[in-house]
């Protein structure tokens, strides 16, 4: 019964603390029941309970993976198994160290297993850092500041270290927890805030309902949609917007119909306003997902990271685009890749202009993933998503504006230097020696005369074997 209760409780906590609308506090508590259970049962029971609990926690996103993203069943199974493996491995490794009395090692080194798992997935899978526990904390600004120092890997580390410390129920574990809390709080206090950095432009965002993606400007439906966007963009410009961003794949254009789009927005662009339009550009037999930056001329950015399966028919781009020396341009899924945003920051970008297209239910989560990219590299993110949210976030993770149809945000300090933007994934690499330390402590021979602090006394419902029976 104890095993069942712990498994279900952890599973429900992961269910509420993860998914598309996570409750941040539950994520910290989810592993605790499993870790406490693991100290009282055999390893195989702890492993099984951890795997089952993780699967329960994934129940809320399976429909999103399969029905919305149309991911292959094999891919979904792989993602679920990856999480189950990390959960089980973390619990078993922490169990072994805690039973040996090595509490500090358990708290400070075991989380490296999950960090390395997430980092490896970001390098090996085509989705970048899309899969991470860290995004569950996107609305908790003191915690998310850690990404400016260590990337999402630092937040994931904390999310695993804290429950291990709580489950240990020892002074050393609580001391580690207090030390980590002090470090997070200290970093949040001393982290530089945007000072004399350049101002962002006043930005406008607009997303109007449309029947389909990439409505061709050669057809009445595309022309009608363009007719609805023009007064909206003009109105935002009249209210002070110097840059206006439209969603991803708003129009379908060809070299022959592109002048129609340029002419429609010429009254605005001739006044010095930049208009960024997401479109599908067809040239001969190829199609690209592009952001058209309209100003004195037309500058084109092509989406570099396409969604596997859904965008296989498109040709990816290879080149970054920085406009006016400080306006970086990217499209939707590009922001799932921290390295791309760091690269833009190194090129002088202080603001990212991002046409996007969400799937309705994932609007909050994907907009907050973009927010985290901004905190990591210390820049402003302007993201206009159809069937999602229009958001503007500053370099400290504060949401400056959010809407679903139209948004205007005045200028503010746009950028700040961050260690992560300069050093990259140093913390993920630090996790490797930490994991080796944990494994060495787990598997090396016990020193003579040292008695483990605790050990399982038997499986639930079955008394422990007597010493006579063990000797026999």
From TrEMBL:
<keyword id="KW-0378">Hydrolase</keyword>
<keyword id="KW-1003">Cell membrane</keyword>
<dbReference type="Pfam" id="PF00795">
    <property type="entry name" value="CN_hydrolase"/>
</dbReference>
<feature type="region of interest" description="Disordered">
    <location>
        <begin position="450"/>
        <end position="472"/>
    </location>
</feature>
<keyword id="KW-1133">Transmembrane helix</keyword>
<dbReference type="InterPro" id="IPR036526">
    <property type="entry name" value="C-N_Hydrolase_sf"/>
</dbReference>
<keyword id="KW-0472">Membrane</keyword>
<feature type="transmembrane region" description="Helical">
    <location>
        <begin position="73"/>
        <end position="94"/>
    </location>
</feature>
<keyword id="KW-0012">Acyltransferase</keyword>
<feature type="transmembrane region" description="Helical">
    <location>
        <begin position="142"/>
        <end position="160"/>
    </location>
</feature>
<feature type="transmembrane region" description="Helical">
    <location>
        <begin position="106"/>
        <end position="130"/>
    </location>
</feature>
<protein>
    <submittedName>
        <fullName>Nitrilase-related carbon-nitrogen hydrolase</fullName>
    </submittedName>
</protein>
<feature type="transmembrane region" description="Helical">
    <location>
        <begin position="172"/>
        <end position="190"/>
    </location>
</feature>
<feature type="transmembrane region" description="Helical">
    <location>
        <begin position="12"/>
        <end position="37"/>
    </location>
</feature>
<dbReference type="GO" id="GO:0016787">
    <property type="term" value="F:hydrolase activity"/>
</dbReference>
<dbReference type="Pfam" id="PF20154">
    <property type="entry name" value="LNT_N"/>
</dbReference>
<feature type="domain" description="CN hydrolase">
    <location>
        <begin position="204"/>
        <end position="418"/>
    </location>
</feature>
<feature type="transmembrane region" description="Helical">
    <location>
        <begin position="44"/>
        <end position="67"/>
    </location>
</feature>
<dbReference type="InterPro" id="IPR003010">
    <property type="entry name" value="C-N_Hydrolase"/>
</dbReference>
<dbReference type="InterPro" id="IPR045378">
    <property type="entry name" value="LNT_N"/>
</dbReference>
<keyword id="KW-0808">Transferase</keyword>
<dbReference type="InterPro" id="IPR004563">
    <property type="entry name" value="Apolipo_AcylTrfase"/>
</dbReference>
<keyword id="KW-0812">Transmembrane</keyword>
């Amino acid at each position: 019964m104890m095993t069942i209760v712990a498994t279900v409780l952890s599973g429900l906590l992961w269910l509420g603390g993860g998914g598309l609308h996570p409750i941040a506090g539950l994520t910290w508590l989810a592993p605790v029941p499993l870790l406490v259970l693991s100290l009282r049962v055999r390893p195989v029971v702890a492993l099984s309970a951890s795997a089952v609990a993780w699967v329960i926690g994934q129940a809320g996103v399976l429909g999103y993976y399969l029905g919305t993203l149309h991911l292959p069943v094999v891919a979904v199974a792989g993602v679920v198994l990856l999480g189950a493996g990390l959960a089980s491995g973390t619990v078993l490794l922490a169990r072994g160290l805690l039973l040996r009395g090595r509490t500090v090692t358990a708290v400070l080194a075991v989380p490296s297993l999950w960090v390395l798992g997430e980092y490896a997935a970001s390098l090996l899978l085509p989705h970048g850092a899309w899969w991470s526990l860290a995004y569950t904390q996107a609305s908790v600004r003191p915690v998310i500041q850690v990404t400016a120092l260590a990337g999402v890997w630092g937040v994931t580390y904390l999310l695993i270290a804290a429950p291990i410390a709580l489950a240990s129920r020892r002074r050393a574990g609580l001391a580690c927890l207090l030390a980590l809390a002090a470090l997070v709080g200290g970093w949040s206090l001393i982290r530089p805030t945007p000072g004399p950095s350049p101002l962002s432009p006043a930005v406008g965002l607009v997303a109007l309902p449309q029947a389909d993606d990439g409505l061709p400007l050669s057809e009445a439906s595309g022309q009608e949609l363009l007719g609805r966007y023009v007064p909206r963009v003009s109105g935002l410009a009249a209210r002070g917007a110097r840059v206006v961003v439209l969603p991803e794949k708003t129009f379908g254009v060809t070299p022959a119909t592109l002048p129609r789009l340029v002419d429609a927005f010429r009254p605005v662009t001739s006044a010095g306003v930049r208009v960024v339009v997401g479109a599908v550009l067809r040239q001969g037999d190829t199609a690209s997902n592009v952001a058209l930056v309209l100003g004195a001329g037309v500058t084109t950015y092509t989406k570099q990271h396409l969604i596997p399966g859904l965008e296989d028919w498109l040709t990816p781009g290879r080149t970054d685009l920085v406009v006016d020396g400080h306006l970086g341009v990217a499209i939707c899924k590009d922001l799932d890749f921290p390295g791309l945003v760091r690269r833009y920051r190194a090129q002088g970008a202080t603001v990212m202009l991002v046409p996007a297209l969400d799937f309705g239910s994932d609007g909050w989560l994907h907009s907050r993933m973009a927010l985290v990219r901004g905190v990591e590299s210390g820049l402003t993110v302007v993201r206009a998503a159809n069937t999602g949210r229009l958001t503007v976030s500053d370099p400290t993770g504060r949401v400056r504006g959010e809407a679903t149809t139209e948004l205007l945000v005045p200028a503010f300090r746009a950028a700040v230097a961050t260690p992560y933007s300069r050093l990259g994934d140093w913390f993920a690499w630090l996790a490797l020696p930490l994991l080796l330390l944990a494994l060495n402590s787990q598997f090396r021979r016990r020193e003579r005369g040292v008695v483990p602090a605790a050990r399982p006394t038997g499986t639930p419902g079955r008394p422990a074997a007597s010493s006579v029976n063990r000797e026999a």
